[in-house]
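User: Fold both of these, please.

Assistant: Here is the first one.
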Amino acid sequence: MRKTIGATLVLAAILMITSGCASDWVRTAAVHEKSESYANTATSGIKAIRIADELYDAANKGNRQLAYTALIQLERESKRTEVRAMGTSKGWKAFDASIQSAKKAFAQKPNGEEAYLHAARLRLAIDALYRSSPLWLQYQNVVQEDLERLRQAWVIEWEDRSSAELAALNVLRIHAERFEVAALLERPEADVTHFQELMNRMEYAIVYAAKSSGAKERNRNLDRVWLELQNSADMLFGDSSVTKPASGEPSEAAATDPAPARIMPLVPDMAAREQLATMFIAAFVMGILAFVGWQRYKFEESHGASYPPPKSPWERDA
């Protein structure tokens, strides 16, 4: 009976050690596989950001040849599988369309503001994929200033109030056009299109208000659309959607094209390293316990007495 119990204990200890080591090997292999994937993504991200910066700088300096070369490189880099795995499908459609528009703009003489606009759009888009704090989110303060300037245009008594209002709205449109692609890569399409639709409604409200004779009704209509535009901007910049690859399309309209996956850390986090260390230590301790148990079992089997043996009379007297 004691033999059976002892053998069972030894076998259980060996199985625990084996399973613990196997778990460690599986976990370690998974960590290395993820690290390799993250390393590939990080390398592509660094290269894409560098090319986008070169494109923007060349366009800003009017160097059309260098800008066009960087544009072709950016187009090639953006088609890599690990790059397209991030962002949203709607965002990538807008990105590809902006690439084609930029090619036409750089091919023209002079290319001017249109080429610079597309370079800025593409740079913000690439930055949105790889930065933890994307540059396009800094446009929130710019948009708030544009909205306040737009509201002041009809609050203050101008000689040509509608022209001032439309001019202020046009500034808002220009800024919104710059971060449009980046927003589509990070936000649900519905939030971006709603903001754009409200700018169109604001233009219609301004034109309608110019033909209205009642100042009170005029201001009330403009205030209503302005408030909706303000709320839409807050939602657009404050949205925190769940990460999702571009290939998947959610079923709910409110969750369409959520935020992209970003570069993950290239080294396993502290919790994973601590778990691996704990499992190795546990396996080592279990090995020692198994060895001690085996010694006890062998002694009892050979001597027919409990382990360790009882002390001799001389040892007890001492």
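And the second sequence with its predicted structure:
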Amino acid sequence: MRTFARVLHVAIACVLLVSAGHGIAAAAPTASAVRTQLPWTATGPDGLRAQGAALADGLTGTVLWSREAHTRLPIASIAKVMTAVVVIASNDLERPVTVPAEAAGYCAGHNGSTAGLAAGEVLTGRQLLYGLLLPSGCDAAYALAEAYGPGQQGFLARMNDTARVMGLGNTHFADPSGLPYPTDHATFSTPADLVALGVRAMALPVFREIVAARDFVVPAGAANREHHWSTTNRLLREYPGTIGIKTGNTNAAGHCLLFETVRAGIPLVGVVLHSSDTSSVEAKNDAERMLNWAYDPIVGALGSAAR
């Protein structure tokens, strides 16, 4: 069963690589061209509400289907994926980080989600990554940026430098949390860039471990209070095979979701942007529509081969 899945995955990947070029960095084919190259009979997932979306092979990064793949859109807290990538690249995750007094005001001033951090408490960079990626703590993002930039502007420069190195030419970060500062659209990306970022981030073992967690507890210590954090990623709890990665929501960005699943041994990375103004459920539902469109014929073929 696993051997067949692997063969099927390789066959699909080879077709896509020949047709679309090697990986995300290659010029993306048009939507109509993508549809004709795919082994699926449907022209795309039905009922999708997202303004922008993309679904890619989780190994090669080749986009399988997209909507507005190269349209720049605000991405809200999906920006925290890059925040985490930059921190992990420091190779200094056990560094003690003191939570700045400004972190709480930063969150409150922009109505941002928090990890419930207290000014002056000390946690490691690794612990703060959990606070960043599970409850989507803007206070954790602020603390990490101050420590690893050093300072907000230094850290933003590192985020944007990393985006350039990755070839994410339609991506810019103006805030380490993706908050609407200084304007609603100051931090932006595209569906194609985000699935490329997702593939890169999920290749990092530390990142992959963190975003796979549904819950995380930091015990109380001499310099910190106890923290209980739960993921905001509904897909992780509700869709079989989901292994990460990050939600996002602002008024301008709506509800967004960057995700990865593995079913039948086949990893897929996808993103939906602005699925709804009001409901994270709609972002989850959009992701499920895309995944079912991709996986159903594969799982059906595996079932037929097993009989």
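The radius of gyration is 19 Å.
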